[in-house]
Specification:
about 210 residues, alpha+beta, five-stranded antiparallel β-sheet, 1 helix, elongated
């Protein structure tokens, strides 16, 4: 007589299926939440980086103008009427307004030597004013409205007079003016769910010509 072993075939019980499904759903929920969180963080980083890129571009524009500028005047307010004198702003006092002669004649000017441009801060935004001699003053917004600039400081070396009452502080010094600019502020996110980010940028630029 031949005896055959019967293998007992046993399936999953209802409880085992329920436990398995619960574990699977829990893992998927955690994974989906992590994916959404990663997407939110990535969106925050992209928007913040976009804002900070705009700030960096603004600083590059200012430093580029400084490199080709001359006859620098640094103070805490724009003088009225516009001055053509020079004034330094040594560390640590510094200044909040920088005025200088541009390298290219401004539109509407009658005398390039008396043209001036000014960089300053007003209501959290950086502005550039163009003062063509004999022409109309023009104002340009340098930073966008998605950033709030809280402080703007200029520190100058080799700018001659520290009083602004004369063209020169004695004899020519044959020094190249070196301007250091410090900008601090906070981003203004486009969505309320994105937190604001504080920042501080410092950069320096030297005039390419001797400012004698």
């Amino acid at each position: 007589m031949i005896h055959r072993n019967r293998t007992s075939l046993r399936g999953f019980t209802l409880i085992e299926l329920l436990v398995t499904m619960a574990i699977f759903i829990s893992v998927m929920t955690i994974a989906t939440g992590a994916l959404f969180s990663a997407q939110v963080v990535n969106t925050r980083l992209e928007q913040t980086q976009s804002i900070l890129d705009g700030v960096n571009l603004a600083t590059e524009v200012i430093i580029r103008d400084i490199r080709y500028g001359s006859r620098f005047y640094c103070d805490t307010a724009i003088p009225t009427p516009m001055t053509t004198l020079r004034k330094g702003c040594d560390y640590p006092s510094g200044g909040t307004v920088l005025i200088f002669r541009p390298t290219v004649a401004l539109n509407g000017t009658t005398n390039l030597n008396l043209d001036r441009v000014a960089y300053y801060l007003s209501n959290g935004i950086l502005y550039k004013d163009e003062y063509p001699y004999g022409g109309t003053v023009k104002t340009f917004q340098i930073t966008s409205s998605d950033v709030n600039i809280t402080t703007l400081s200029f520190y100058g070396d080799g700018l001659h007079s520290t009083t602004g009452t004369a063209d020169y502080a004695g004899a020519s010094d044959n020094n190249q003016p070196l301007i250091t600019m410090v900008i601090s502020g906070v981003t203004i996110p486009r969505k309320k769910t994105i937190p604001a980010v504080t920042f501080s940028v410092q950069t320096s630029g030297s005039s390419r010509a001797l400012d004698n």
